[in-house]
Amino acid sequence: MGASKGAVSGPGAPSSRFLLDLSPIPPAAPAVLDTEQAQVVAHAQGPLLVLAGPGTGKTTTIVEAVAARLSEPAAPLAPSEILVLTFGKRAAGELRDRLVARIGGGLVPTVATFHSFAYGVIRETADDYLLSPRLMSGAEEDVRIRELLLGSVEDGVIEWPDDLAAALSTLGFANEVRAVIARAAGQGITPDRLREIAASSGIPAWSAIGHLASQEQDVADLEEVMTYSELLELATDRLAIDSIAATYHSRYRVIYVDEYQDTDPAQVRFLAALAGPGTSVVAVGDPDQAIYGFRGAELRGILEFPQVFTHADGTPAEVIVLRNTRRFGRSIRDAARVVIGDRLHAGLPVEQQRLHRNPQLADENAATPPVRVTTYDGETSRAIHIAREIREMNIDHGLDWSQMAVLVRTGGQLAAVQRAMLADGIPVAVAADEIPLRSEPAVAALLQGVRLCAHPRRIRPADALDALSGPMCGLDATDIRRIGRVLRQRVRDENPGAPVPSSEDLLASMLVELIRGDATSVSIDGDRIDRQLQAFGTLLRRAHLLVANGARPEEVLWSLWNGEIPGGHAHGWPQRLRTAALHGSRTADHDLDAVMALFETAERASDRRAGVVGIDVFLSSLDEQHIAAEPVAERAARSDAVRLLTVHRAKGLEWDAVWVVGAEEGLWPDLRARGSLLQAEQLTPEGLGAAARPSEILAEERRLFYVAVTRARTYLTIATIDAKAGEGDRPSRFIAELQAAGAVETIPCTVRPRFRLSLDGLVAELREVLVNPDSSPELVEAAASRLAALGEVRDSSGYARVPLADPAQWWSTREITEGAGPVRSLEKPVGLSGSGLESVLECPLAWFLEKEAKAETPRPPSTRFGSVVHAVADFIGKEQLPADLDSVDSYIDRVWHELRFEAPWQSQADRAEARTAISRFIEYHLRHDRELVGTELNAGATLSVPSPDGGTIDVVLGGSLDRLERNMQGDLVVIDLKNMKYPPATKEIPEHAQLGVYQLFVREHGIDGDPAGGVGGAGLVQLRKAESSKSDAPQVQMQPALPSESPTWVEIKLGEAAEVIRSENFEARRNQHCERCAYRTACPAQSEGLPVIT
Predict the structure, then answer these.
(1) Which residues contact 65 (CB under 8 A, 6 or more apart)?
(2) Cβ distance 719 to 374 under 8 Å?
(3) How far is CA 663 from CA 430, 726, 786, 845, 986, in A?
(4) Which of 353, 355, 417, 732 is the most buried (most CB within 10 A)?
(5) pLDDT for 696-740, tens place per residue?
(6) Residue 383 has pLDDT above 80, yes or no
(7) What gap in Å lies between CA 554 and CA 564, rounded to an integer?
(8) Residue 689: partners with Cβ closer than 8 Å, 6 or more residues away
(9) Is the whole-model pTM more than 0.90?
(10) Which of the two residues, 758 and 836, has the higher pLDDT score?
């Protein structure tokens, strides 16, 4: 059927109206079938299993089989006598559309998912519900189970094992309980039977869960709701009633089941109950694409089909193999063969499996692009390269965005690829339930605002930076740095001589004061920044009061999103997104969709709790969402965008070009045991089953990789990380198998591509043309005119949309300025530390950027590692911890989880190294050749040192001594504890600047100003390096005592460094640390930094 709309404008014109098109839809021509497809279509009676690999036309075969049964000359079936079952609403809808097009409209057979059809069975046959039962989502069931758990703890009605007491209130435990309940329902295990199994298996937690499941069922009955697993069991129970079974057995003469390999035991039982003695069951599937074990699907369902669904005489069902693939060519077919391997499944005929594993091509000799394996040094580089290749595929090969996809192993890999594609201006579609809702950028900003309002005292420095730079405040990095400088100066003025906290700490404190209404004015750039801060503070304060007064989560969210405050609005974020979306911004459109999904989720949660508790439960529930599993949150993907999705979601889809991400050893295959706290995966009707063997886990991971590589029609790229340094990710064993078989072309990608095709990249390209002396006059003129046009574009507020196109913003167009006098007074002493002396002499520019310009960079994990080791060493030295490795280990374990690492493996590796380092320190500490005088001693000295011009310079030395010891001669020895992976060479120790400065401290002032004894040298204790292969003691690198006469070598170095600082001559010097320098991209001594200067 169709509809046409006619509209006439003008005075007296009739109103618009719709006209129903009743003309019949002509049936489509029958598809051209191969021999095996024709056999399936001709199959008229009895069970049949069809093995259909990727691209073999299984959907076409089902459609043609249905059409054939409807049009049989001798005994055609009525549409009501045919049932087609499949998985997922999308698949059911597509199959239904194909059937309608094929048979030409009119009545069509029922096409449904297992769950929707089971729901129909209940509605048709049950007398218990006056209203239709509502199905709960997984998130709703988690909340319900958690409430029942908390109630069971408070009431004491359920006896939980003592070792689980601490976990009962957590969402993670609620998820575990839900998994056991769902597994029990899927296996047909009642709550009473679950308690019996618990007693016989010796797992008391299952008994408690049995009681909880009974409570949940009682509550569900009262509220007329049910879970998806309960739905199938109830429908199966209804079909066990003779009268109901007879009705359905006589109704359906043939049942077609698509994707049969994805069935779980409950679905198999339901199908067996639905099919009568005269019903033909035709199952179509591919055991090599069985990848949903984590959802309860079992491979044995398809492997046992011939024995479960037999002919009337008991003979097994026939097996037919669709042998011809039409999806891809030889390159991808051969790669898929290597991936799936030679090991066959038990239970199916061997010959049919071999035919299934070796599909035929229409043209075996046709040339096809090779399958590529591209290797990168990190995740960011990989994402940028993929974005560039997608852009090139669109431009050079003419592929539409919708004909390309990026498939990832885990949902956690989506964000990096999505950022790279959006930055490159590539339209990308990610289903809302592919990325956890909390990870959507717009949602993350709103949730952070909610957290700030709910618990202001928990604000961390990182939270403050994100909030101030976010869309609800809108300060840029320069504004935030200026605020930080003002706050630091304010502390100095109010407390002269006191330690000054970091800018980040002060910003966090300021944000707390803003929420309380106590913040003082920050006068920068007139009143602009202060107005923004005060408006943001007012907005947060109003939301904070809403939370305190018991508001519902969606009310707090609306307050932040709307931005309304007395006298106006704190921000125009919604309006900006709306304007951008109406002007075609896909990112803005996506952000608005994500915000809408957040409000829908909050509204569903509001019926549970409100106020602070409600907010906390709501935030916790979002934090616990890690995988895509909520059908209520699914939204249609854009049809004009590159798809970005997990491999599990990609099953059943295909594209011309596919990039596969995540094929790193340890991640894919992920061979970690699939066990859980409550052992849900081992629950069987007979009791405690065996845990999954590593070989079974590897087989499922192999099938998942097979699904990934067979999604591509023409171009397939497997993008993997190969960190050759030995501490990072390495390519998967699956890639090694492909390489050994010669099935792929390997391309190392060592150079990160430059962004040129985004708006900012375009501006950079045009600017480079302008400053390039080799550019022709015509090219320069064209670049200048385009930049001028970009610079003139304004938004509705009058601000430039492309501010970087304005030459006034380019530093290279400004004259180099020079102050009338030195910034630092020549009479003022120069302050230096031991590490500062080394830094100034190695590279004055790096020292200036870090110490003077405060261009702080993120601390690498190694510094956090060192902080923990130093703190423990100090505690042992002060006898606050015993010099016992087990005691120290226990202390470290309590604080280690607070450290942030980029990956779990890094945390585990550093934790092991920390134990080794502490073990070496304890061995050093217990040595008796020197007496410990003190630890973590603040030291300082003021002295005159020779300057390079022959005069003297006053220098103020400051620093902290890790350990001060006294040797047998009574001299003081300074010890510096180091956690360096690469200690300095032995030849460098005699003039090691930091040790020399430490000796000067002690020589000039001794201990607390008392020069008690001479100086006996200084040493580095290398806690990461043993003194020899036969000893666990740390390597100790000793520096001889300084001469008593001045100037010593270290004083001469101090003079050189002080002169550099006083003359303000901060030049860039190449040294051995350049490769790891944080300022490399801004350094004129490096090729990356040259564009900054030009």
Answers:
(1) 40, 41, 43, 256, 282
(2) yes
(3) 20, 17, 43, 41, 43
(4) 417
(5) 889 999 999 999 999 999 999 999 999 875 567 889 999 999 999
(6) yes
(7) 15
(8) 682, 683
(9) no
(10) 836
